[in-house]
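Run log, item B.
One chain of 147 residues. Sequence copied directly from the ordering sheet:
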Amino acid sequence: MKNFKYWKRLIVVLFIVVSLFGSAAAQGDVKGMFIVVTSPDPQTQMMAMVLATQIAMKGKKSQVLLCGFAGDLALKESTEVILKPNNKSPQMLMKNLIKLGVTVEVCALYLPNKGKAMADLVPGVSPAKPPAIAEALLEPGVKLFTF
């Protein structure tokens, strides 16, 4: 009976070790992040932009899709809300993401339903094409985050 308990514990320990290594290996397969922002809250928008920036700085591919109220971030005329501690706005970080080569798009429904045109968008932001978005979301190794 003593021998059985030993093997049982060993199997449990091995299972935990394999699970941990499997999780670490899976994270190593992460090729990029697809970030969808819909929240009208500036702090939530800022956190999405901060994380997208960190991902880009780590050399991973990231893509940002702004939908609904968050689409207003992409308008030239949008009001910027400066947040502490860095005294920056979500728009400032979004523009920096564009400079870093991150794709930033507004949902395909945003412009026509807002009564706006491409000329109203911040340079570097474009309307999303649903087939391309679907392909990006299905790409192996891409994780989806929503804010």
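Observations after the first pass:
- The longest strand covers residues 32-37.
- The chain has two domains: 1-30, 31-146.
Flagged for discussion on Thursday.
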